[in-house]
TrEMBL record:
Protein name: Laminin beta 3
InterPro entries linked to this entry: Laminin_N
Pfam families: Laminin_N (PF00055)
Organism whose genome encodes this protein: Canis lupus familiaris
Signal peptide interval: none
Keywords assigned by UniProt, alphabetized: Disulfide bond, Laminin EGF-like domain
Domain Laminin N-terminal: 1-64
Amino acid sequence: YCTQYGEWQMKCCKCDSRLPHSYNSHRVENVVSSSGPMRWWQSQNDVNPVSLQLDLDRRFQLQD
């Protein structure tokens, strides 16, 4: 994955999801991670389209 670094540069790092809680692990569990913005889910490269199904097991109200 790559993120913007400074105004004109990109910083790229390899994802490694073999261990679920490692710094570079971007498993689907990280969608609702309590670790804050430094954790996220990322799909496998070159897979398009990607579907994600959530079973929330109750009704939720989403607002702006």
